[in-house]
Specification:
Blueprint lengths: L2 H41 L14 H9 L6 H13 L6 H13 L1
């Protein structure tokens, strides 16, 4: 996977996550508004429900990271070369330790 493909994939993922967050917020707000309206009608003090939306900053963070200002291209190039020629290796113990620490929190 190239660097650009990875960034594009991240941007799509964050966009999907942002869309899902907004959709969930709208569903919860609509559900709450419906129950509030029913309660208001039952008590005789009906008022128009208000719409609300809550947007996360994930899209902005993804766009910021896509700028590539903090990428050390010399390091990226050396890692790509090592992977391509087969000399890059990672110890299995390091991978297992990292996986366990991420999974356990």
């Amino acid at each position: 996977m190239s660097y650009n493909n990875g960034i594009n994939t991240l941007q799509q993922l964050f966009t999907q996550m942002d869309t899902a967050n907004v959709s969930q917020t709208q569903q919860v707000t609509a559900s709450n508004a419906g129950s509030e309206t029913k309660a208001a009608v039952a008590s005789g003090s009906a008022s128009a429900p208000s719409d609300q939306a809550s947007l996360s900053t994930l899209g902005g963070l993804a766009a910021q990271s896509a700028g590539g200002d903090d990428v050390r291209m010399d390091k990226v190039m050396s890692l790509q070369a090592a992977i391509n020629d087969g000399s890059y290796s990672v110890s299995a113990a390091s991978v297992a330790d990292s996986l366990m620490s991420h999974m356990l929190g």
